[in-house]
């Protein structure tokens, strides 16, 4: 098949790699609008389970990704002068620019054409048997057909900003700082030997009260450096001006589509769906989309099998995403309702931070939930009841939300 992949992010590049490995006769071009070596973002996170799947599907790119990643195996939370450290599964971080460099080099080595500074629009689509819209949340290829795709984007309440720092954290770090205008907090994690990602979030009233909505980019960073001086250990924050010259602060847009394909056009990665950054799954889900689409195309080869392949990809990936999207929704709500938890003793608040994906937590008083959770660790019947009740509550909440939209 002739495949045009629009968007040179992780999803598009990895799909090209997998399809070339399946059948070297595929004619594949990845079209990326930005220049070679330019990318947004700092570092991305993933877990061992993803690396195992990458190793199974393409050992060469997996080896290089692992070589250029850093790891941690704990979470640290800081609040009111108290630090809590919890051991956990091993997390991995890699610079987004490095990840894209590795995937682009691997794709080219397999015979994929990777063309930079090539902006593709619906009016300039190349001739292809399959067109993959991997062009992000603001997909130009999806835009003319959003009624067909059932596109819906919901903006979150809290503003946030992606930054970097030369402070290299040894764990995934959360820190909460109280100001005269409310709480502001950060997530920090390393992605190479000299840098960490540093994401800052707060409520809208805190953002405006601190003047971050009006501050120049450099002035805003300077204020954040003061607020998080202890967390940063005196290191500076690194920023990049937004592409349009406006504020680097954003509100997260949760994007969904009711269908992911139209004729020979298929959505991939952020063009199809987004999940809140607080669960750290965006890149993993994009790569898993690529795996799912490649597997479906392999099971229904050729242009004759394209309708069945795209239907299978959509069905299987939508099903796989349900639990992740639910976890992301509840995680975002936990932060949007931070005053509900921030007054608890630090160790209890940190425990509920770890439970923020729970569909039960928003409906149970925090102190009561904490007691139930501790008891469930000791009593198997209560643990089973909690596992049963959580999904039941989540389904009920989802049904109510759909009814309200209708």
Plain-language structure description:
Strands 3, 4, 5, 8, 9, 10, 11, 12 and 13 form a nine-stranded mixed beta sheet that branches. By secondary structure, this protein is an alpha/beta fold. Helices cover 42% and strands 25% of the residues.
- The helical percent reads 40-55%
Our Rg estimate from Cα atoms comes to 22 Å
Shape: globular
Number of strands: 15
- Largest β sheet strand count, sense and barrel closure: 9 strands, mixed
Order of helices and strands: EHEEHHEEHEEHEEEEHHHEEEEHHHHHH
Number of helices: 14
Quaternary form: single chain
Give the SSE map:
Blueprint: E1 2-6, H1 10-22, E2 27-31, E3 43-47, H2 48-57, H3 59-67, E4 70-79, E5 82-95, H4 96-109, E6 113-115, E7 130-133, H5 146-149, E8 152-165, E9 172-179, E10 182-192, E11 195-202, H6 204-209, H7 217-227, H8 229-232, E12 237-238, E13 250-256, E14 261-262, E15 265-267, H9 282-299, H10 306-336, H11 339-342, H12 346-353, H13 366-378, H14 380-405
Parallel strand pairs: 1-2, 1-7, 2-6, 4-9, 7-15
Antiparallel strand pairs: 3-5, 4-5, 8-11, 8-12, 8-13, 9-10, 10-11, 14-15
Helix pairs in contact: 1-4, 1-9, 2-3, 3-4, 9-10, 13-14
What structural keywords apply?
nine-stranded mixed sheet; alpha/beta; globular; 406 residues; six-stranded mixed sheet
What is the compact description of this entry?
By secondary structure, the chain is of the alpha/beta class.
